[in-house]
Amino acid sequence: MYSKKAKMKFKNSVKDIKTNSLKAWILAARPKTLAGAAVPIMIGAAFAFVDTNAHISVLPTVLCLLFALTMQINANLINDYFDFIRGKDDKHRLGPRRACAQGWISIEKMKRAIIFFISLSCLIGLPLISYGGWMMLLIGALCVLFSFLYTTYFSSRGMGDLLVLFFFGLVPVCGTYYLAAGSISCIPFYIFVVAFTCGLVIDSLLIVNNYRDIDNDERVGKITLVVRLGRRKSELLYLLTGYVACLLGLVFVANGFILCFALPLIYLFFHTHTYREMRRISKGKALNMILEKTARNILIYGLLIVLGLLFDYIL
Q1: Given CA atoms 62, 65, 69, 72 in this order, what sign does their dihedral have?
Q2: Pick from 294, 250, 287: which is nearest to 272 by CA?
Q3: Cα–Cα distance between 303 and 315 in angstroms, integer?
Q4: How far is CA 63 from CA 186, 207, 278, 294, 305, in A?
Q5: pLDDT tens readout for residues 1-10
Q6: Where does the chain cross the membrane (predicted)?
Q7: What is the pLDDT of residues 12-42, one digit of tens each?
Q8: What is the pTM of this model?
Q9: Average pLDDT, stretch 195-212?
Q10: Domain regions of the chain by residue span
């Protein structure tokens, strides 16, 4: 549980937030979620680095990272805006406070910010067409479209987890690999596997988020996968995301990446410990701590994959 001192510090800090201030925008962007956007790019680029013998295309790799980060911020703003206008961010909310609901960001400013970040993402992603062809335009358009559909449709119908596997796994990992590798015309099978494992690990963040909100989601009619499964099965699903991801890493061994499989097993220590804390807490705002630890675990997983891969390459 959070200490009284920590709670008081948080309350005092949010009182100081002025409407449409820089601090308000930073909170609205939810910087702690950006690890989920960066890790798939990092993994895709690392595999491209090894498979091309360190001859990757740097500019498209950087553009992929910037596109992912700006799209993640945009998705956060969209979620903030639509949850507020649909009355889902009310006094019953257990998660971190949202900018529109708290009056930190005005509705008009939020709408303009969404348009700005969509435009910025498109501007960043447009040059990728010269590296990957017009297919990049279609992928970019789908990213923008589903950043809206996630909040307005899929998350309320238990399909948000599928979007995570696709847009935080398959699309960023495979897309970054393809663009960074440049000279490689065919994406190897094990890249699709690592994309799926990455999506599984990142989905653990959505699971614990929905696990925390299960009672409120049921009250407002938001049918997430966690609502469908219930608490006990959702806890097991959370645990399995990490273990299945690491088990699928055996495909790396078959392709000569021994340490790329072995090092991420360290992640399971953190993942299992967080799972046990999640079960112990079970309900309430204290689950926000589990959310933060899960984000940390995702970053640990990504770094271990990259380190293992680079050690395999060097050795």
Answers
A1: positive
A2: 294
A3: 18
A4: 21, 29, 36, 26, 22
A5: 444 444 444 4
A6: 58-78, 135-155, 162-181, 187-208, 237-270, 298-314
A7: 445 568 888 889 899 899 888 888 899 999 9
A8: 0.89
A9: 95
A10: 21-314
